[in-house]
Amino acid sequence: MISLRIHEQPLHDQPRERLARQGAGALSDAELLAILLRVGTNGTNVLQLAQQLLAESGGLQGLQRLDFQELCRLHGMGVSKAATVKAALEIGRRLARSAIEERFPIRSPADVATLLLVEMSHLDQEHLRTILLDTKNRVQQITTVYIGSLNAANVRVGEVFKEAVRRNSAGIIVVHNHPSGEPTPSMEDIEITRQLVSAGRLLDIEVVDHLIIGNGRYVSMRERGLGFE
Q1: How far, in Å, CA of 66 to CA of 223, rounded?
Q2: How many CA atoms lie within 13 A of 140 on its CB side?
Q3: What is the pLDDT of residue 64?
Q4: What CATH number did the domain enclosing 131 receive?
């Protein structure tokens, strides 16, 4: 079977021309990626290269999870292509978050999951983040407080509430992930929650919930009555 180079395909079938004619929404993930990559490699046109990259990495989410060096090492990539892909994925992530965050009201743990579940499900280190809320439970800001192994001894309460105090927030939601993929709370998680809830009462900043995120799943500590006694 003969493989056509991308410029040898009929003009109307090429990704950039289809985007201009039909809009970006009409293109497949591989076609969008091909536009970013611009050129393929010897014997592989750019669309085939895009398809191979998506298959090897597990789709766009897989590409997002790869760090810059890992992306550079994939067949047909390199510093320039990797930088372009990483930049595009980050722009998309920021746009998606800003659209959701803009005065987004939190009414349930599921709303928190809408904000952070996909992004935090696949982190390879523990991250602790705070969602700052105004008096109507609308999102003011999402802040990363810690990256690394979390335990009750190294979580400084002042750091967790620092931005909330600065923004005069009415409440916070604490979110952290378990890289193992299992969101079941540990005894350390319960102790951290107790400490934060107690500190929030003193600061007059309500700890609305503490969510633990695993692989596509989450646990609400408040719903389970853990640390909120």
Answers
A1: 33
A2: 18
A3: 81
A4: 3.40.140.10
